């Protein structure tokens, strides 16, 4: 094994033990490979970025299942490819459901005016979500707010927080997971 392979192997072993720095290092090492692969497949920067984040999230959740007889990059690309296939299937299913015999779904899409009930539900859901976000540590709250409420790009968030862009990606990934746990445990 060469030095790069030794470093990779060591980081994988640390990541399997839950070392966050190792996760971050692996993300740095392979982000461009996975993102580039998805950009070619999706031809859409937002989809490519979302799928890449989901890829690393799933990979880090399932790192114990990684078989070291395969290349780590190949394992990540396989996860990424499967996530993209799932996204395509989901979109096709959604389109098929909306174009079925009942055209009510199409009419609802065309009439985007929210009803009074819709507004009340949205306000209640937003209030609940904001309460859940407040349960996160302040640095996670901040990155969630900048990304989803201020709608800043990763680069703009990195500039705002004076941190490397990959740190922002990892923080956002962790924040979303923690928020999902909070919501799930309600």
UniProtKB/TrEMBL annotation:
Alphabetized UniProt keyword annotations: Sigma factor, Transcription, Transcription regulation
GO molecular function: DNA binding; sigma factor activity
GO biological process entries: DNA-templated transcription initiation
Annotated RNA polymerase sigma factor 70 region 4 type domain residues: 133-179
RNA polymerase sigma-70 region domain mapped to chain residues: 34-93
Superkingdom of origin: Bacteria
Gene3D superfamilies: 1.10.1740.10, Winged helix-like DNA-binding domain superfamily/Winged helix DNA-binding domain
Listed PANTHER family: RNA POLYMERASE ECF-TYPE SIGMA FACTO, RNA POLYMERASE SIGMA FACTOR SIGV
Family: Belongs to the sigma-70 factor family. ECF subfamily.
Listed name of the protein: Sigma-70 family RNA polymerase sigma factor
Source organism: Costertonia aggregata
Source taxonomy: Bacteria, Pseudomonadati, Bacteroidota, Flavobacteriia, Flavobacteriales
């Amino acid at each position: 094994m060469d030095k790069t392979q030794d470093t990779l192997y060591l980081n994988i072993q640390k990541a399997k033990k839950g070392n966050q720095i190792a996760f971050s290092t692996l993300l740095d090492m392979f982000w461009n490979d996975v993102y580039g692969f998805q950009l070619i497949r999706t031809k859409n920067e937002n989809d490519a970025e979302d799928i890449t984040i989901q890829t690393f999230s799933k990979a880090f959740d399932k790192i114990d299942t990684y078989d070291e007889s395969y290349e780590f990059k190949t394992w990540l690309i396989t996860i990424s490819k499967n996530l993209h296939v799932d996204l395509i299937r989901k979109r096709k299913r959604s389109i098929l459901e909306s174009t079925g015999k009942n055209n009510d779904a199409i009419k609802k899409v065309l009439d985007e005016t929210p009803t009074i009930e819709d507004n009340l539900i949205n306000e209640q859901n937003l209030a609940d979500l904001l309460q859940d976000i407040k349960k996160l540590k302040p640095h996670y709250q901040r990155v969630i707010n900048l990304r989803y409420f201020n709608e800043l790009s990763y680069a703009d968030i990195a500039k705002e927080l004076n941190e490397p862009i990959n740190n922002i990606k990892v923080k956002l990934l962790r924040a979303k997971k923690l928020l999902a746990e909070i919501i799930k445990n309600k």
